[in-house]
Specification:
Chain A is mostly beta strands. In chain A, 0% of the residues lie in helices and 50% in strands. The chains are: A mainly beta (112), B mainly beta (111). Chains A and B meet through strand 5, strand 9 and strand 10 of A and strand 4, strand 5 and strand 9 of B.
């Protein structure tokens, strides 16, 4: 079955630690995206990638980093520089342009 | 600016119709999308409409598009408790690979 997966579903981190969230897709999509969702709020774009080995900052990139070494994978690292990282993180992918985005199930990150 | 606006909450009784409204910004968007998010889950595409259409019907869902006013609506007929979720409208941002999502409307269906 084709789809987009995220792991882990729940993640706990101590303050001062970096943590990496996984996102994998087998839909052969060129574009991939990371969003952050806070309780009662909409989606905010962190980073996006249109093609392998290329990515752009979204609206709230500070304190986050990404890589796109493979078409299928777009991991997100939440660094210790991110002041308020507790949130629900959503990964998405698409063929790009105006095509629909497909979403993963999300990772809930809690900083202890 | 690039804001897509939605009302935050809607409460309806089971069996009634629900209408969720959205005001978007980019008149050059080819498609406009509606997504549904159930608690603790990712977003699922519910339906979409081409920008050259005024209306699209898909079973219990009706999408209306008013390009002049940049207004999009989603009507759910015979609303069920399983329709309780957050609904997002979204438009592609022209010239980029980015999407602009609305703030989301939380629909609560009362039994």
């Amino acid at each position: 079955d084709g789809g987009i997966t995220q792991s882990p579903k729940y993640l706990f981190r101590k303050e001062g630690q970096n943590v990496t969230l996984s996102c994998e897709q087998n839909l052969n999509h060129d574009a991939m995206y990371w969003y952050r969702q806070d309780p009662g709020q909409g989606l905010r774009l962190i980073y996006y990638s249109q093609i392998v080995n290329d990515f752009q900052k979204g609206d709230i990139a500070e304190g986050y980093s990404v890589s796109r070494e493979k078409k299928e994978s777009f991991p997100l690292t939440v660094t210790s520089a991110q002041k308020n990282p507790t949130a629900f993180y959503l990964c998405a992918s698409s063929y790009g342009g105006d095509n629909e985005q497909f979403f993963g199930p999300g990772t809930r990150l809690t900083v202890l | 600016g690039e804001d897509v606006e939605q009302s935050l909450f809607l409460s309806v009784r089971e069996g009634d119709s629900s209408v969720i409204n959205c005001t978007y910004t980019d008149s050059s968007s080819t498609y406009l999308y509606w997504y549904k998010q159930e608690p603790g889950a990712g977003l699922q595409l519910l339906t979409y409409i081409f920008s050259n259409m005024d209306m699209k019907q898909d079973q219990r869902l009706t999408v209306l598009l008013n390009k002049k006013d940049k207004h999009l609506s989603l009507r759910i007929a015979d609303t069920q408790t399983g329709d309780s979720a957050i609904y997002f409208c979204a438009e592609p941002s022209s010239g980029t690979y980015k999407y602009i999502f609305g703030t989301g409307t939380r629909l609560k269906v009362l039994a």
